[in-house]
Design goal:
Endonuclease I-creI, 2 domains, rod-shaped, disordered C terminus
């Protein structure tokens, strides 16, 4: 199963295969080249481990600048991945890279759709995101050795990104679900946004269910403790010292120790209010009987 990042890159790369879908293709190519391009005196080489991204770069060089790139595959490397190198050479290629720098500056000044296109290119090269529902939470990041490039990504992102230095590389990242989905939506990854939102709804439903379950369990525990105390108190009463109505209620409660007030009322042919009143009188009867018993004991002595 491909990683979530690989799937996102594939979706972004597939956009370039649809004719006329995006007027900002050059800006997207500028993001790709800035993120993963290696320049020399005769041309530029872009390296990627994604076959879809490699094909997208070939299409963009061809459609935007009428260049015929060289595509070379090598590997697999230590991680089992094939590496693809897309290279363009010659004066036209060098001129094209200068034009891409202009596109980048335009994206920074205009933002909007141009900024989104640049981010799409950048993400295909150096972006990554964890799948919704990952146990360690949400995370999307851009990683690059050039701080200026990372700061550029932060400027163009609609979601706030934090920047840190990690193992000789600069990282711009978002960790909240809201910030991740804002950035995914900005890049046009709407299927991923829906998946994140579905996970969020499911998570909230689970949280509500857990709260209800915990409340019910705590409530049941309180009822059980109260019932046990009431049972203990009633068992200590002497039925012969009680009025008939209370004596009948005592027998009824002892026969149905776990019944609710409504159930006791149904068993005894009474109203719920009457059951509650008689149980209160029974609860008050035990201290009175105890006091009477102590007084009788004093009189006997």
């Amino acid at each position: 199963m491909p990683s979530f990042t690989s799937e996102l890159r594939r979706q972004l790369a597939a956009r370039t295969g649809v004719t006329g879908t995006d007027p900002r293709r050059r800006t997207e190519l500028a993001g790709l080249v800035d993120a993963a391009g290696a320049h020399d005196g005769s041309g530029v080489t872009l390296n990627t481990t994604s076959a879809a991204v490699a094909r997208s770069v070939v299409r963009l060089w061809h459609s935007e600048f009428a260049l015929e790139p060289y595509l070379d595959a090598s590997g697999p490397n230590l991680f089992g991945r094939t590496r693809y190198a897309v290279r363009v050479e010659g004066n036209r290629a060098l001129q094209a890279t200068e034009e891409l720098r202009v596109e980048r500056e335009r994206a920074l000044s205009e933002a909007g759709s141009a900024g989104a296109a640049y981010l799409r290119g950048a993400f295909q090269s150096v972006g990554s995101a964890v799948r919704p529902g990952y146990r360690r939470g949400h995370h999307l990041e851009f990683v690059h050795e050039d701080e200026e490039f990372v700061r550029r990504v932060v400027t163009l992102s609609r979601a706030p990104l934090k920047v840190v230095r990690r193992r000789d590389r600069w990282v711009a990242y978002a960790k909240s679900s809201d910030h991740v989905t804002i950035l995914l939506a900005q890049m046009g990854l709407h299927e991923a946004v829906l998946e994140y939102e579905a996970r969020a709804i499911l998570g909230e439903a689970k949280a509500i269910a857990n709260r209800v379950t915990n409340f019910d369990a705590a409530n049941a525990a309180r009822i059980a403790v109260a019932a046990a105390r009431q049972q203990e108190a009633l068992e200590g009463l002497d039925p012969e010292r009680l009025p008939k109505a209370l004596r009948e209620m005592l027998v009824l409660r002892l026969e149905h120790p776990d019944a609710s007030l409504s159930e006791l009322a149904q068993h005894g042919g009474l109203t719920k209010s009457a059951v509650n009143h008689r149980l209160r009188r029974l609860a008050a009867a035990r201290p009175q009987q105890s006091a009477i018993s102590r007084q009788q004991g004093v009189n006997v002595r």
